[in-house]
Amino acid sequence: MTGGPRICDYGDSTYREDFWEGQGRDYEDVVERQVLAQLLPARGQRLLEVGAGFGRITQEYSMYDQVVLLDYSFEQLLYARQRMGDDRFTYVAADAYSMPFCPGAFDCATMIRVIHHFEDVSAVLAQVSACLCDGGKFILEYANKRHLKSMLRYLFGRNIWNPYSLEPIEFLELNFNFHPDYMQAKVTQLGFDIRRVVPASWLRLGLLKKTLPVSVLSGIDSVLQRTGWRLSPSIFLSLQLGDASYDNTAAESRSPLDILRCPRSATALRRDGDVLVSANGIRWGVVDGVYDFRHPLA
Ligand SMILES: C[S@@+](CC[C@H](N)C(=O)[O-])C[C@H]1O[C@@H](n2cnc3c(N)ncnc32)[C@H](O)[C@@H]1O
What we know:
By secondary structure, the protein is α/β, with parallel strands linked by helices. The chain has helices at 15-20, 26-39, 74-84, 121-131, 148-155, 180-189, 206-211, 214-225; strands at residues 44-50, 64-71, 89-93, 106-111, 132-143, 169-172, 175-177, 192-200, 234-241, 269-272, 275-278, 283-287, 290-292. The protein is globular, with a radius of gyration of 19 Å.
């Protein structure tokens, strides 16, 4: 135990099979890709996907020359690597509260279906901010506690928690829903400028999903997304850090060592076989093509 914030460890969970594959969530999956397509730029150099999991949506980042998948679950990353290979992708097993990257290494970061596992929102947002360059973009999706269904439930006495109060609600251990004003205050405090707010997944209701085809549901959703009303269960924020246009020499490099650094000592790393060694001798493993920064080697 480090005494830091708790981590929601997916380990070798069956998240892919139990939550996505054949589980009736095609509508949510399509809508999330639809929103990303609207918010991502036409071209980019290096993108960090925080909490990439098994790489469900990583293929949406095809406009980026390099994509770094970061997740605490080594097994999810291994699955992603087996599916997508190493060509444009780098796999990093690490705690997002303690990221192993050089300052300003990325011109974009995304965090989709991830921040609901973080009890210290400011701490993880500060990590994202530190590894983005000036002018960097950040697409953040979060679970909204003040959505239409929770408001109705509250009205009829069916919610034990108040959807209008600002504090996050931990409805299951390490699963939080956030009030839109709370999340917007947090990102603003960290220096992010809110460029767009896209409310999504409006029609997440069993009966609708059973009766209407995904194309109809996602079509209606895209109309509702344009309202900007923060009353849907999922909200995307398109954020920007500063105004500079992207100009980072490290971005030219394809070598992971140019963007990785020791998360404990913040020093540069050199590779020695399957081990990365920091300037002060801390050693990290490279296992099956995944850079493993969860625990240093003995
Ligand atoms: C619900 S999954 C979402 C995966 C992917 N973004 C998607 O939408 O399919 C949440 C992911 O966040 C990762 N995660 C949770 N806490 C983390 C932490 N402290 N550091 C890094 N990853 C974390 C989990 O391992 C898991 O893969």
